[in-house]
Write a structure and sequence with these properties.
It contains four helices and three strands. It is α+β, with helices and mostly antiparallel strands and 88 residues long. The protein has two domains: 36 residues; 39 residues, no CATH class. Strands 1-2-3 form a three-stranded mixed β-sheet. Strand 2 and strand 3 form a beta hairpin. The longest helix is centred in the middle third of the chain and has 16 residues.
């Protein structure tokens, strides 16, 4: 783990961005606290809290309205997903 001040980070951002690919980098600030620098992978999903809450509420409403797909007894997850794709 590498711990740097916010001043050091600002002065050498590229260095710490590159370092964050292989090490934990923690940036400290007296007035703002500490932060961890984490690279975002291509398959990471970024979503804000309001959007996530709305999607969860919509899922609950769909479930309560009976808008669900159920797996058949003995059906594998691959078979289930294949059936959903073919129904669309």
């Amino acid at each position: 783990m590498v711990i740097v001040s916010s001043r050091e980070f600002r002065a050498n951002q590229r260095k710490y961005f590159d370092l964050a690919r292989v090490n934990d980098v923690v940036i400290t600030s007296r007035s703002h606290g500490s932060y961890r620098l984490v690279p975002i992978a291509e398959d990471d999903t970024l979503i804000d809290r309001a959007t996530l809450d709305a999607k969860i509420r919509q899922g609950i409403a769909d479930y309560e309205a009976g808008k669900v797909h159920r797996m058949k007894d003995g059906e594998s997850s691959e078979e289930f997903l294949g059936r959903l794709i073919n129904e669309a």
